[in-house]
Design goal:
The complex is a heterodimer of chains A (344) and B (522). With 344 residues, chain A is an alpha/beta fold. Chain A has 14 helices and five strands. Chain B is elongated and about 125 Å long. Chain A: It comes from Micromonospora marina.
């Protein structure tokens, strides 16, 4: 049905379409800050809300940016520059939000996570819903978070974790927040498909998007999600965690990469070991299996598939006294019917 | 079986259990002495189904009952006898029952206090502790709990209240004002810390309390006011209110309320003390954290800062930027030492620069002046603290470039990242500031074309020890490589990238203070 020409369709009936997205990506590609901000402001003037623009344009565009970097069509410098432009768009949109009228929440990225744009978007969307939000920044050390919580006593912590290999650190931050009497709402794909690992590490809820975060905050927060978190289901967790560095060293020695790629390979192995520890922490083989499938692509370009099999095999031999952990490694090595790929 | 009826009767009357037998029609045929004692209404010839012991009358169809009768707790069991007759055996379980009740009450009391102890111990934040203190007693001890408290200075000395009642979605707060507080008997005394026993008030002159109770609460049945004592004086008063239909507070509950109020008071006092210290620290921290950089035309600036591991996030590294007529003047330095001690000297260096730049804006001359000023400070020699420092005068050029004159005091040389990807060192040299009266300083000049960038950094970047295997330093080579691959990035993105790489390199290991300042032409 075509609206009469003198009455434009209201924003509520429209969505930000692919043409707008393409135009916005064009501005990102050209690192054109002014153009990107003007486009976003124009959408506000058209009647779209700050939330619409952030979620349906900026966040969607950022996924595309990540994809372009991952597939190698953009360099890391292009990705950084584009992200920087979107950050300034988030700033500009955030400046239009009115004063808070609800409680105080804190937004933090898990320690080690530097891609803060998604968290910035959540911050502004939650602010637009009336909350006072303090954004603690990318890669927040747990002790900074705790000291901030004791100083300000917020109603909740929003914790972002994008990669599951950082889940062990996320678990520590949840533990620390709960110990300070503040419940944690988890967000991001790092907490697993549908956030299935969020509850295991003691989070009060999980959301995939900024709008989910707003919806989660609508529900009353229970004191049941403070205090000591549920213990790790697999008791091998602490043992494996303590051997982290040693395991990385062993695996690196086993694959013995050429000098020029040694650091990249070592970093990849460290991530894999972290994913293993995280899988033990949440007692779910799927975490490691998915991670290995993903890592397969990343490592393939650096040392070939054989390398991944070698790493997993070395870890198996080093951890023979923990049969359940070995079983997890084997499951990841063999891949599973619903796994993303076979490794080794 | 005793053939002698008399002996049988004697045996029956000697039992500690009451025995009542009934015939086929349900009429009582025999009661023993204990039955006459416990159930005087039941005598031979009485129809049990119509007797004046309701539990027994009602139990006609079943085989057991338990009831309160004449102040005793009775438990009965029916056994069938021959010829369709039956016998009730009734025991007096009053004592046993009281013991079980007491045990259950003690258990729930212990559980409540344990829960209170662990929850009150969680937060060090005053508001949050107050929220916990009013949520915990509802509904276990009362239908509404209110804490009346006086916020610590610098807030005005006005009593505030925070309430949680059954049905409230969360704690509600408000300002009480002295008239309300004075109208509630016992409240002023409790707030003043007079350690009176908490006394329950029965529907007293509590009309004014309505202001702090939920709208539909009605006049409370009983109200119990307990002082919340703490080592530092009274932390507040706990007001527990019960609805009219609920029984009043018994002695045990009064004791429990007092105990709880004491724990809540201690937690509140700890939070207040922490709040005071944290406020002090925050004021100090705010004066010492790197500033938000001003926007200057013709150039783009960005800073990055990570303090060595303490929760105050202040340390010995710093940067600053002062606008000047034709551009700006930046400073980036590293005071020897870590933590608050280093931060205080950092503050002194920044203050001195702030003042001295008003009389001297040429970087090398300014360094010399700063050196004299620092050495001139009282007991400077005893402290023997020194600073490595870069001072840079940024001057806009007509073509959109920047001319930078950098003076150095023993600091790592800044790097220039050309738009095309080349990385050059700007050799400056010089000796540390604040160590020697005759220290020599040096300077150098560098031109940035539009798109070029200058990065000044502290040794926390290159000396970060980590790596995935054997601990090694991040080093110059990795820094240069990170910069080369990030050529052309805006300063903020480049600084973030280096911080990220260093952070990944550290992989959770502790590190020294890290500071970076990047400036790009254009």
């Amino acid at each position: 049905m075509t609206p009469p020409p003198d009455r434009p369709t209201s924003a509520a009936e429209r969505r930000i379409g692919p043409d707008t997205l393409a135009a916005y990506l064009g501005h990102l590609d050209a690192a054109d800050r002014a153009g990107a901000v003007a486009l976003a402001s124009g959408l506000l003037a058209d009647g779209f809300s700050v939330t619409d623009v952030l979620v349906d344009l900026v966040a969607v565009a950022q996924r595309e940016v990540g994809l372009r970097w991952f597939t190698g069509s953009w360099s890391i410098a292009q990705e950084h520059a584009a992200t920087h432009v979107s950050e300034q768009v988030v700033d500009a949109l955030g400046a239009t939000i009115g004063p808070p009228r609800r409680g105080h929440v804190v937004m933090a990225c898990v320690e080690g996570e530097w891609h803060a744009l998604a968290a910035r978007i959540v911050t502004e969307v939650v602010r637009a819903a009336g909350w006072r939000v303090t954004f603690l920044g990318a890669s927040v050390p747990a002790r900074h978070l705790v000291s901030y919580l004791h100083q300000t006593g917020p109603d909740a912590v929003l914790l972002s974790c994008v990669q599951p290999n950082r889940l062990v650190r996320a678990a520590r931050m949840v533990e620390a927040s709960r110990a300070a009497g503040v419940p944690v709402l988890a967000g991001g794909p790092g907490f697993g498909p549908d956030g299935r690992w969020a509850a295991t590490i003691g989070a009060a809820g999980w959301g995939a998007s900024a709008r989910d975060a707003v919806a989660l905050l609508e529900r009353p927060l229970s004191a049941a999600h403070t205090g000591a978190p549920p213990p790790p289901p697999d008791d091998a967790y602490v043992a494996v965690l303590h051997r982290r560095r040693e395991l990385v060293r062993l695996a690196l020695a086993a694959v013995d990469p050429p000098q020029e790629s040694a650091e990249d390979v070592a970093a990849g192995i460290a991530h894999l070991v972290d994913a293993l520890i995280a899988a033990v922490r949440v007692d779910d083989d799927r975490l490691l299996r998915d991670f290995v499938g993903w890592q397969e692509e990343a490592l393939t370009s650096r040392g070939g598939r054989a390398l991944l099999g070698e790493v997993l095999g070395t870890l198996e031999r080093a951890l023979t006294e923990h049969p359940r952990v070995v079983a997890r490694l084997r499951a990841a090595r063999d891949g599973a019917p619903d796994g993303p790929g076979r490794a080794g | 079986m005793p053939a002698d009826d008399h002996l049988a009767r004697e045996l029956l009357d000697g039992l500690a259990e009451a025995v009542v037998t009934v015939d086929q029609a349900g009429v009582v045929t025999l009661v023993n002495a204990m039955a006459a004692d416990l159930l005087p209404e039941v005598a031979p010839g009485v129809d049990l189904a119509a007797c004046r012991v309701p539990a027994l009358a009602d139990a006609a169809g079943s085989d057991s009952f338990e009831t309160e009768h004449h102040g005793r707790r009775l438990r009965g069991l029916r056994r069938p006898l021959a010829d369709d007759r039956s016998a009730w055996y009734v025991r007096d379980v009053t004592e046993e029952h009281a013991r079980t009740d007491a045990l259950l009450a003690e258990r729930s009391r212990t559980a409540f206090l344990a829960e209170a102890g662990s929850r009150l111990g969680l937060s060090l934040h005053r508001e949050q502790t107050l929220r916990t203190a009013v949520t915990l007693p509802v509904p276990y001890l009362a239908d509404a709990a209110v804490v009346v408290h006086r916020p610590p200075p610098p807030a005005e000395d006005q009593p505030h209240w925070i309430r949680y009642a059954t049905g409230d979605p969360g704690p509600v707060t408000g300002l009480a004002g002295w008239p309300v507080v004075e109208s509630v008997p016992g409240l002023v005394e409790a707030l003043d810390g007079d350690l009176t026993e908490p006394t329950p008030w029965l529907d007293a002159e509590l009309a004014d309390l309505a202001e702090v109770l939920p709208a539909g609460f009605g006049r409370p049945g009983t109200v119990l006011i307990s002082p919340m004592p703490s080592a530092g004086g009274p932390a507040g008063a706990l007001v527990l209110a019960r609805r009219r239909k609920r029984p009043g507070f018994d002695k045990r509950e009064i004791g429990l309320a007092r105990e709880f109020a004491g724990r809540a008071g201690a937690a509140l006092a700890a939070a207040e003390l922490y709040g005071e210290q944290a406020h002090l620290a925050r004021v100090l921290q705010n004066s010492l954290l790197p500033p938000a950089l001003p926007r200057l035309s013709g150039m783009t600036l960005a800073g990055g800062y990570r303090a060595a591991g303490d929760s105050l996030r202040i340390g010995g590294d710093f940067y600053d930027l002062f606008p000047t007529g034709d551009g700006g003047l930046f400073a980036l330095g590293d005071v020897c030492g870590k933590g608050v001690g280093a931060a205080v000297l950092t503050g002194r260096v920044r203050q001195s620069l702030q003042t001295l730049r008003l009389v001297e804006q040429r970087p090398r001359e300014l360094l010399e002046l700063l050196n004299r000023a620092l050495l001139d400070a009282p007991d400077a020699a005893r402290r023997a603290q020194f600073t490595t420092l870069l001072l840079g005068a940024l001057r806009r050029e007509p073509d959109g470039g920047l001319l930078i004159r950098v003076a150095g005091g023993g600091h790592p040389s800044p790097l220039v990242v050309r738009a095309g990807g080349g990385v050059e060192t700007v050799r400056v040299g010089g000796m540390p500031v604040g160590a020697l009266t005759d220290a020599r300083f040096a300077d150098a000049e560098v031109r940035l074309a539009p798109g070029d960038l200058l990065l000044a950094y502290t040794d926390g970047v290159t000396e970060a020890r980590g790596g995935p295997t054997e601990p090694a330093m991040f080093g110059d080579a990795r820094l240069r490589q990170a910069l080369a691959t990030g050529a052309g990035l805006p300063p903020a993105a480049l600084v973030d990238r280096v911080l990220q790489l260093v952070d990944e390199w550290l992989d959770g290991q502790s590190h020294d203070d890290i500071a970076m300042l990047a400036v790009a032409a254009g």
